[in-house]
Specification:
heterodimer, A: mainly beta, four-stranded antiparallel sheet, 12 strands, B: 48% strand
Chain lengths: 116, 117
């Protein structure tokens, strides 16, 4: 069974500061990993994805994540936070080993607050 | 290209009543998923359709939940009778088939917020 752990349900950073949202996964097969963002009153939007190509993945809005197999981690970072980054962020893992599409297993989410 | 749409956006019903949620996936997407987020908890998988067939319904909580995808287009999720613990946000997502060269990215709808009182 797969699982995702997101450390910190709430993270607060100052505008311009580094954003680091942590995600660790557990999977018995090579995983596909995703970060989604949910802005207030909106649906989930894909930020970036790891699908067994480059381990450093760049996404939208300046976010990136690095897949570290030895640490079973996929932490999300952004060098400089902007007020518009305030949202809830979800890490998710998917099992595509069978070659077919399959469900996502989500972490509990991290709400990012950006202060002036 | 239109995204995934869900109807209604909000629904408030009393315990024991029936509610039907609808999801329209992105046109041409064979895979359709239902997820649910109960307040304060993680987003949990409910079931997965490939075209009109149920590929995986391991996440359906009990037989009060019935999902259909007639003709492989839109899907409905019916809750009958609703219980208090069914309250939450129900998300629908869709993705392309592997033969279409996708990496299985799932596109999510805005969700339906269900409140059972």
């Amino acid at each position: 069974a797969q699982s995702v752990t997101q450390l910190g349900s709430h993270v607060s950073v100052s505008e311009g500061a580094l954003v680091l949202l942590r995600c660790n996964y557990s999977s018995s097969v090579p995983p596909y990993l995703f970060w989604y963002v949910q802005y207030p009153n909106q649906g989930l939007q894909l930020l970036l994805k790891y699908t067994s190509a480059a381990t450093l993945v760049k996404g939208i809005n300046g976010f990136e994540a690095e897949f570290k197999k030895s640490e079973t981690s996929f932490h999300l970072t952004k060098p400089s936070a902007h007020m518009s980054d305030a949202a809830e962020y979800f890490c998710a893992v998917s099992d595509h080993w069978t070659g077919t599409a399959s469900k996502l297993t989500f972490g509990t989410g991290t709400r990012l607050q950006v202060t002036l | 290209e239109a995204g995934v749409t869900q109807f209604p956006s909000h629904s408030v019903i009393e315990k024991g009543q029936t509610v039907t949620l609808r999801c329209d996936p992105i046109s041409g997407h064979d895979n359709l998923y239902w997820y649910r987020r109960v307040m304060g908890k993680e987003i949990k998988f409910l079931l997965h359709f490939v075209k009109e067939s149920k590929q995986d319904e391991s996440g359906m909580p009990n037989n009060r939940f019935l999902a259909e995808r007639t003709g492989g287009t839109y899907s409905t999720l019916k809750v009958q009778p609703a219980e208090l613990e069914d309250s939450g946000v129900y998300f629908c997502a869709s993705s392309q088939d592997r033969t279409q060269g996708s990496s299985y990215e799932q596109y999510f709808g805005p969700g339906t917020r269900l409140t059972v009182t």
